[in-house]
């Protein structure tokens, strides 16, 4: 399956290579560089590149290309999904996944990669098991290791791989037993010129942070499970129980994990919590344009909208912008033509607005499209789909855990066409 | 003065870092400039060797870490091999692991020295701890040294019957490694694969199927007996194994079952209802799905809920290739969900949806809006979405789509805008209602400021006009006017071709266009020159009075052009249209040749016909056959014998068993006499639950085992497990398979395998009955 992996940074240097079968020369990456050159932007590099003897499958994350070398037919998503899992694992291990971090921890990275694949076939991809095999580096451990000469490699043998719940490590102990669940919903929407919704859907996830001793068995039930008609589960969730009773029953992995993600599709009605009033106009003959945006709350169920950031990619003809915001700060980058306005909280009594003028390149004609406006925002304590957790119960252990549930709504890909 | 002061301070500023550099060089070993690199490398490796030979573990570990760092950067560290390999038996686990990493990388290059390490692994293969055995096998098989093939073979054979499923899993991985090292071992390896395929552990299933696919994908016969087991294990196999198994089972099913698609649901509108009913009846008579086929579809369906995109895609392709057309729709929701994922996942999923949406529009029509393009999408995602939108266009949604397309045309991403114009063209040809609207819209675009947009519009309009040239004189005139401003060669060529082709409809303009272009001939692109020649030729044939001289002039220019192509074309045209004594019979037909009715170009999706590759494969993505692609066979006309999948039960049937069966079957008969079928089922299942109680393997169903605990006292029979088989088998024969399915759905522990395996038992039971 996967022959080799190359990590390539933004400058085009191969800074790590790993081979699981016979060594593939790094010159194979030249085909990748060629494709990269052709696709002016990093995100336009095709994920699958055929070369005479190999196929290069790549993912681009954190400004690093992870390029896997394949020799024969394999489902491309298999490789891509695995590469993303690798990135997630690095992130889990080192906090951030950057070139510097990987270079600093090259030995751990190598050991982890060794465990994740055997002969190019995934062996251990659960972070719980990996962490049992190879302990993630922490500052404390590095210090201790240098003094005592002990190692990163787990000295016990990993038994998790053999158990019936391979995602949970064994012998977990905590003094404070706690389980937190975050229900996070993102709204993806396209709003047209006149303010009506073209398409809107909700992408929700339930992220959990479970620190419980022993082998707890949890059940989570919802007030309105009917909302969840399109879901995907962490492998720990018992599917049969969900099918019959609409209850999530599972033995959780230790630590952070994504329990569930769901999708409320475009066919349902989605409440749009904010609106944008805009007046952006270019005049044909003059080199000045008018620019005006106002952001206001719409259906927020009484909650405040915060963390609002407005970004917009202006047409190439715009030279500069002179704007005055009623609140927050704004930046216009004359090179990339990106306008970004950090609004902060929306006060319904005094709506934030950004007004001013744009100066256009003299002589250039009026751009034929007004820029689209991208919006980010956050609303705490609200799941916009109306999803509510009913109760969380624990079986199998004697102690009483501390439980917490948090809701949040965010903007996903929220676009307003002007 | 001030200038001096400045220069002085500059010097001072420069001096400081120089000093620093000197200080730095003195601390490290001095580096002579000329062969510095080479020297330092040797030095470095020298001290690494010393560290490896030291008695302290910490020094060794440090050295190993540095060596692994070198390996990771792709630097050559092979000369350290002897020093490293000595540490293979180190007590320190981390050193050991790093030595393994090093060994796997370099053993191939240093085969003789690598042999030194073998005995250590051989010893470890006998270790009482399963994890040590497994890792020893893993490393041993990863050392690609041909001499040790027999040792590997032996180790694999032994490991394949190890008690620990984890070791067996590693044995399955080792099979592939050995096969790639020495393909001659194939026969022996197939034996091991056959043995491991029978394994019941979920840990092993994925890995051994992977080995099967790599070593002997043609030996489909090995799967028969394990088919039902694999179907049942599937949900519990780890996600990567699931993908491999699903792909394999897709191939398998296509060879073993008959097509569920022959049932055509094309309803004749004028047919009366009765006829329809008759037809349905017939359809039902001719096709019933093999229960094994149904089992596969049923057991893969829950996996659509997997968090792993590869699994979801694998199930989707299985449904696409195997499910009856009416059922394939269930995958669309999950596929659309994947679109929220990363760019790369989106790319692959969209490609597959594009292929699907050409053939079965209905599947994705409800999700039309999920494919709307955002300005932040990368261009390749945008064009794929556009492709799907175009495929989904129909009379009902075209007006919404066209409005959406209008926004796209204005996009700042010009490449995408051009693609949108193409898409509009395709919609216009496919849906006749909107052809005129589209055409008008495209004509409006001709006054766009962006050249690429205009050029693309011209090209598309040209294609559209060709499909229905009847009454578009106005548009052609409009385009002739544009010729003065457009500079993009393709667009200019397209306009010229149009005018030439329909010169009889614009008799006044055409000669004038030729006059203008003749003037600029020398400065035109080759593409345009060819079309000027064509235009001249066509006008000469239709309107020689006005254009004879002009054409002659153009032909003369062409005769001395720099390009071969144009000179050739000129010569050809001259011979053809200007009659002289040498020209043969052809010139008589010149008009027919030049002004023949030309078929309109078909505007087709690039994803048409891509589904001859199995969906979700690399070959599908690239649209060429990748190495190692295994083709899906066509459905067989007649299904091969389904009984090959039956599994016999190992133990023989004891004598006392017969009487007991009678008892049970009479119980069953009583039940089946009652009219309330629902109750009957419940009654039986309760009985089953009771008998389940003492069964040692009842682990998988929690409810039933907890239920049965209370009733365990009432149990009196000596062979509860077998009695259950019998009930099920009786049920299976007496009633439709659906009843069995009903039971298996509720009591997962009573899995299919057992039902089927008990079928053979039933043969015995029938004698007593």
Automatic annotation (TrEMBL), chain A:
This is AP-3 complex subunit mu-2. Keywords: Cytoplasmic vesicle, Golgi apparatus, Membrane, Protein transport, Transport. PANTHER family: AP COMPLEX SUBUNIT MU. It comes from the Eukaryota. InterPro entries: Adaptor_comp_med_subunit, AP2_Mu_C_sf, AP_mu_sigma_su, Clathrin_mu, Clathrin_mu_CS, Longin-like_dom_sf, MHD. One of its GO terms (biological process) is synaptic vesicle endocytosis. It is found in: Golgi apparatus; Cytoplasmic vesicle membrane. The lineage of its organism: Eukaryota, Metazoa, Chordata, Craniata, Vertebrata. Belongs to the adaptor complexes medium subunit family. Residues 176-417 form the MHD domain. GO terms for cellular component: axon cytoplasm; clathrin adaptor complex; cytoplasmic vesicle membrane; GABA-ergic synapse; glutamatergic synapse; Golgi apparatus; presynapse. It is a peripheral membrane protein. It comes from Strigops habroptila (Kakapo).
TrEMBL record, chain B:
The keyword Transport applies. Its main location: membrane. Residues 706-721 have a biased composition (Basic and acidic residues). Residues 686-703 have a biased composition (Low complexity). It is found in: Endomembrane system. Residues 45-578 form the Clathrin/coatomer adaptor adaptin-like N-terminal domain. GO terms for biological process: intracellular protein transport; vesicle-mediated transport. GO terms for cellular component: endomembrane system; membrane coat. It is a peripheral membrane protein. InterPro entries: AP_beta (IPR026739), ARM-like (IPR011989), ARM-type_fold (IPR016024), Clathrin/coatomer_adapt-like_N (IPR002553). Residues 1-10 have a biased composition (Polar residues). Keywords: Membrane, Protein transport, Transport. Residues 1-24, 681-721 are annotated as: Disordered. Belongs to the adaptor complexes large subunit family. This is Adaptor related protein complex 3 subunit beta 1. It comes from Strigops habroptila.
